[in-house]
Design brief:
single chain, mainly alpha, Rossmann fold, 2 domains, 3-stranded parallel beta sheet, 5 strands, elongated, binds adenosine-5'-triphosphate, binds magnesium ion
Length: 365
């Protein structure tokens, strides 16, 4: 069986370092591994509209921003089909048929959607009188549309962050239900989570559970070096580490979580200077040694933050430079998206034809 990847992002903002470690970095590695027959990366504008219906400008603007982030991070249109979801209208059609295979109760149990409804303030109004309150039906159903996105390309592998686990599980259920009810047309996908625990769900700079475009606690791939340094300086560390000499806690300390996600041993050779101070100096060879010293006491937050800023810049600097290059020719970026969308549409149309045949609604063939 062909090995196929499908994944994507919502154009609700520029991409941040949570996306990078949670999914984007891995996608680029998979793309360059040569182990996959086809790779599809989707800009999920239709999904973004499910909770941004009143803000089409935001979604439109972020199509190019996300495409630039992709190219800057190393996605290569020669190896990866990058496309825009709404252009592939077959996906909407598939969603409509899949809706018959899922119950409202099943959707209501989805823990990610539950958390997102709460976060977005879509509280249920009893009589539905207030249009502002309540969950848009499209938003409630987005896990079904995600199943359509994945299955339209017969994806075997979906590299995403941990929040997407319930969506992949639902997709597998829909595939089983479809194949047993109609005919074995669809393919059950596997989720591919980051192998590093810190990357499963990178917290925000405010220490909140998830860095998220909608929460304003992000370090963006497009942030300039000074902005990154300022954001790192403002980060929460360990509230009990009041004096440099106090023993510190590493667990739940966002600065260390970011180091877990980004730091490599080679960074100690490059940026060891960060641990040389007027009052005390350290010579570390790896992150475990830094953690041990922090737990013991005597290592100040400022030194670690300076080191983290340098480590982040090591990854973000080259990405930022490439982004600026691609941003010089936006028409070329749009052309790349148009070509990718045409390609994606062909594949989705083929699956939709098979689906309609299996469902016996191919009357005129
Ligand atoms: P929104 O707030 O609009 O939902 P988002 O920041 O959650 O935006 P998405 O476009 O929903 O971003 O997610 C795109 C991909 O990035 C998904 O695979 C998701 O699992 C992953 N991802 C998003 N945020 C994080 C994070 N903080 N840590 C790890 N992975 C993440
Ligand atoms: Mg999200």
């Amino acid at each position: 069986m062909a090995k196929i990847i499908l994944t994507g992002d919502r154009p609700t903002g520029r991409l941040h370092i949570g996306h990078y470690v949670g999914s984007l970095r891995r996608r680029v590695e998979l793309q360059n591994s040569g182990l996959f027959d086809r790779i599809f990366v989707m800009i999920a504008d239709a999904q973004a509209l499910t909770d941004n219906a009143d803000n089409p400008d935001k979604v439109r603007q972020n199509i190019t921003e996300v495409a630039l982030d992709y190219l800057a991070a190393g996605l290569d249109p020669a190896k990866t089909t990058i496309f825009v979801q709404s252009y592939v209208s077959e996906l909407t059609e598939l969603s409509f048929y899949y809706m018959n295979l899922v119950t409202v109760q099943r959707l209501q149990r989805n823990p990610t959607v539950k958390a997102e409804i709460k976060m977005r303030g879509f509280s249920e109004s009893e009589d539905g009188s207030d249009n502002k309150a309540g969950t848009p039906v499209g938003f409630f159903c987005y896990p079904i549309s995600q199943a359509a996105d994945i299955t339209a390309f017969k994806a075997t592998t979906v590299p995403v962050g941990e929040d997407q686990e319930p969506m992949i599980e639902l997709t597998r259920e829909i595939v089983r239900k479809f194949n047993s009810t109609y005919a074995p047309v669809l393919v059950e996908p596997d989720i591919l989570l980051p192998d590093n625990a810190a990357c499963l769900r990178l917290p925000g700079t405010d220490g909140k559970a998830k860095m998220s475009k909608s929460l304003g606690n992000c370090i963006y791939l497009a942030d300039d070096a000074q902005t990154v340094r300022d954001k790192v300086k403002g980060m929460f560390t360990d509230p009990l580490h009041l004096q440099v000499s106090d023993p510190g806690h590493v667990e739940g300390n966002t600065v260390f979580t970011y180091l877990d996600a980004f730091c490599k041993d080679e960074h100690f050779g490059k940026f060891g200077d960060c641990f040389v101070g007027r009052k005390s100096s350290f010579s570390f060879k790896n992150l475990d040694e830094v953690k041990a010293q922090y737990r013991e006491g005597g290592l100040g937050d400022m030194m670690i933050k300076n080191f983290l800023a340098a480590v982040l810049e090591d990854t973000l600097g080259p990405i930022r430079e490439r982004r600026a290059e691609f941003a010089k020719d936006i028409p070329a970026v749009m052309d790349m998206l148009r070509k990718g969308s045409l390609e994606a549409r062909e594949v989705a149309a083929q699956t939709l034809a098979e689906v309609k045949q299996a469902m016996k609604i191919n009357y005129f063939e």
